[in-house]
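User: I'm new to structure prediction. If I give you an amino acid sequence, what do you actually give back? Let's try with this one:
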Amino acid sequence: MEDFSAPVRARQSALPWVIVALAVLVAGSSIIWMNNKIGALEAAKAPAQELNVDETRQALAALQKRFDEIQSGQTSLSGQVSELKGQVAKEQGERKLLSDQLGSLSERVDALSSSSADANAGSQQPQRNRRSKR
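Assistant: Good question. You get back a string of structure tokens that encode the predicted 3D arrangement of the chain. For your 134 residues, that looks like this:
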């Protein structure tokens, strides 16, 4: 009698090896496919990040330029304020000088007025005395 169970046993012992080989093949294919997907996602993400970096650099450069302009304007305004303060101080000095001169002139006018009044009073008294003697 022939033993038909020998080829079936050979097939049964080969079946687990075929399943293991298929599992390894599927796992390897999955790993390769995932690596390709991850690489594609990173490649798609890299230009976007690079674009964001460029935009950030441009924005930063614009802000730096604006900051420098503001600092320059501040320096210019500070210089103008200093000039104005100097002009105000100079004008205050001139006003004080004019005020002093006006005070001096006022004193001279008062002195002249009082001496003129004294002279008029002195000249009017002798005339009255002359009249009274007559």
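You can read the tokens as a compact description of the fold. Here is one thing that stands out. The chain has a mean pLDDT of 82.
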